[in-house]
Amino acid sequence: MKPFKKCPICGGKLVEKEVGKLLQGGKHTAIVKVSAEVCLHCGERLYTQDTVRYFEQIRDKLKRQDVLEFQPLGQFFEVAGKRPDDPVEHV
């Protein structure tokens, strides 16, 4: 039995979908595909307790840099330096 028949946020209809969840641990980020109940109205995602525990295990591995079983997808960068919306300095 599912814990909610309708979305606890807006009352919308829930459907089971496979979703991607971004998880961060330390300086590392991973994406995990899991099943979730998703509200068709507001997009709220509901995860089982087992799925939430799985997220915690992955975050812990990321923090410890225990990523040998994870498949790299590329690199992640932080853009540093001047942005177009920074104020102009007058000398």
Salient structural properties:
single chain; alpha+beta; 29% strand; 91 residues; 3-stranded antiparallel beta sheet; 1 helix; 18% helix; flat; 3 strands
Would you give an account of this structure?
The protein has 91 residues and is an alpha+beta fold. The chain has a domain at 14-64. The protein is 18% helix and 29% strand. It contains one helix and three strands, in the order E-E-E-H. It has one helix at 49-64, and strands at residues 14-25, 28-39, 45-46. It has a three-stranded antiparallel sheet with strand order 1-2-3. The longest helix is centred in the middle third of the chain and has 16 residues, at 49-64. The mean pLDDT is 91.
Strand content: 25-35%
Number of strands: 3
From the alpha carbons, calculate the radius of gyration and give it in angstroms.
19 Å
Query: Uncertain segments of ≥5 residues (pLDDT<50)?
Result: none
Number of helices: 1
Distance between the termini: 68 Å
What is the topology, as strand order, of the major beta sheet? Answer: 1-2-3
Shape descriptor reads: flat
Average of the residue pLDDT scores: 91
Helix content: 10-25%
Pattern of helices and strands: EEEH
Biggest pleated-sheet summary = 3 strands, antiparallel
Specify the structural class: alpha+beta
